[in-house]
Amino acid sequence: MPAALKQSPARSEITGLLEEARNRTLLLVTDLSDADLHRQHDPLMSPIIWDIGHIAHFEELWLTRNLEGPIEFSEMPGMYNPFEHPRATRASLPIPPLSQMLDRLNEIRERVLQRLDSIEFDETNPLLARGYVYHMVLQHEYQHNETILQTLQLKQGEPYLPPRRSYRDDSINAGQWNGMVTIPAGRYSIGTDDRSEAYDNERPRHSIQLGAFEIDRSPVTNGDYLQFIADGGYSEPIHWSGAGRKWLAESGAFAPKYWNRDGDAWMSRSMDRIAAVNPDKPVCHVCFHEAEAFAAWAGKRLPTEPEWEVAASWDPVTGSNRIFPWGDTISSAKANVDQLRFDTSPIGSYESNVSPLGCYGMIGDVWEWTSSDFCGYPGFESFPYREYSEEFFGSDYKVLRGGSWATRPGAIRNSFRNWDYPIRRQIFSGFRCVRSL
Q: Architecture of domain 3-153 in CATH?
């Protein structure tokens, strides 16, 4: 059923989703010591215990205090307010140990479920209509799961040892996804009018005129990127923008984050595993400037947001947009999402992960950089608070699309917009390229 037509969820469904989300959060941190939970493993990231506390207090705010309006705060005041306490300062906060945090999580959840028993999903209240506020809180926890995994990849001391890993047969033919897909000029629809799950920055659905272009059939692979490195990609300034050259000089980067040389071989690390760089996997942990430089070296460019979304969602047979490349229902069997592989997969591993126009892997594995600044769509209306999206509009941030292996299925769709600074590499980010026709 298309998202715009979704009905109000059953209370039992919401209860189950809240429980499942919490179980995943706690699974990710189950074997971490309080010292590891409280340590600031990198200045870019919060201590993991802060993320857990923030998850709890965001849930308390929106599923108890703000539930039926009027909205009191957008973020709970105090220790877990991200605007009061920037990431670099959070390690100095008096955050309690995990045992006390668990008590707080359980106490908040008990009150949330008590309120849920008596809630009416009133269509006149946009917070409650079709269960929007519950989906918002669930997605918030899912997104912090991915943030926690970024921190665990950066973890100081002993590498993070995942408590559980899923496996699948990756016998594939990556070569069939070489080349580019041609998308003709035309007027296309992007965005969504969904009010049950989509964030405000995904709305409203609107049409846009695009010129003809080609887009890579799959994300840029490690093998592709190795050619860029071997051809002096990091030392040839002609490929880099002015901002890119500045970042390159300041960072000293010579390869994607977590890559290192071992003699003549390139090695990469994902959590606790170090292995030779697999040429068939999508390149990961590159910033916008690296993606842009590669595209220039290849005689291409990065896609705009509308180009990316059309390639992922447009079905020329029906003349409509799909919510996911394969259809309108999310499934972790269709794409490398949901975290438990703890790594990217070779191109072609998920044979159903193909858009109607023939692009592989537009959901999962790696977030894909676009050339677009993060701005509101025509007719944008902030909801339910401007600090979620509107606070970040402008040229400081670039948009990423498609999710990664660390993204929960409930926090991704073709219309979902992520954003970050163009220098960020701790995110699970890659890209694909386009060429104008």
A: Up-down Bundle (1.20)
